[in-house]
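Bumping with the actual sequence this time:
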Amino acid sequence: MADALASGASVRKDVGVQVPPRPQDEGRIVTTSEPSKTLTQRLSSRDATVGVLGLGYVGLPLAISFAEVGYHVVGFDVSDSVVSLLNAGASHIDDVTPSRVSPLVVEKSFTATSSVHDLSTCDVLFICVPTPFDKAKTPDLSFVESATRSVAKVLRHGMLVVLQSTTYPGTTTEFVRPILEETGLRAGVDFHLAFSPERVDPGNTRWNVRNTPKVVGGLTPVCTELAKTLLLSLMDDPTLVRTVESPDVAEMAKLLENTYRAVNIALVNELAQLCNEMGIDVWSVIDAAATKPFGFQAFYPGIGPGGHCIPVDPFYLAWKAREFDFQTRFIELAADINDQMAAYAIARMQDMLNERSISLRGANILCLGAAFKRGVSDVRNSRAIHVMELLRERGARVSYCDPHVSEVRLGGDTLRSLGVDEVADAKVDLVAVLVGGEWPLVQLEARGIVVFDAVNAGGAPGNHRQRL
């Protein structure tokens, strides 16, 4: 503390943050473009140090990608076990293999830490933390707040801070900015602030951090250009970074992307229910409509979207809209339709069991899939797990198989996955296909097992198999 005060820095007692000395305190007057120019040069030469707060499905791919193109990267996570795993050259994220992490750790291009102090050498800090909602579907920004307060502890002149967590318009300017400015430093003057939404699709091998177009909006034009310069250095193609006029626009763009998907999924989910009543195969309907080469994009029905974006983002937008006395009726209706698809799927299963004079209560049901989508281990907001929970509430005996998810918690119980090779011979009353995969549906049908295929994993229905 004495050293800090001797150097001219001040300490804000109310937040416990050391404030670096302003340039004018050092006996010289500089314009705000001077630190920007220096940072621009360092970004262009990839001589800057990049920090990433949150080493999950968004943060780790970003951190490793920056290290791979020549930056020194410091990754911060509150989990000591995650930090230890990464520093040993391993990975806890499906999309980031140990073969990518290990060489970077060895050459010290990437270091993981759980100490905020280790971020003090960074020129750029990305905030990549979860943005869930609570039971009332109200945005929960506690992770963003915690990460932002960590940034405040190491914030200094000329630093660039970029929020990537999906959130409602105004979060960067109305929530993150005031916390950072508690240090006495001014956003857009003493440090730079921007929002660039993540566009991570877990399990997608075609689109990744380096070839998926990015959107970025800064608090000032200088903030935007700095963030653009940094992101361009990461991309395979210099045309892949789109700048917008403010963080609010970038935040709203992200919500539009996912709300667009949510409402279109709701449309086909409702259509699937109508088609079932009419005796029409909705999958054939969609395939036929998709032959139109313009004005139509195919979406498919299911048990409701899961994961970290589509089930959450519409509620962030609806919540923010209420601040302006505006009700997003269409968006909220779509969310309600998607939410009730799990119960609808169970009703269909119950009908199939009734045809065999089997009660749902006490029935042995094998669920195929537990993750929120095919080919990943991510179970955040998994609709498959929600279906399992509802089945158990109705008295069914539930087992499951997912080669990527070894166990799940249902209530107070832990269920362990069957092996894929055990599925074909499983002694059950019904098999529910909840997530796509290479499942032995032909063998199950050959045994006369009733199969409810919620994701069209097996194609056209058979004698013992129905699809949603």
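The tokens above came from a reply further down the thread. The chain has 16 helices and 17 strands.
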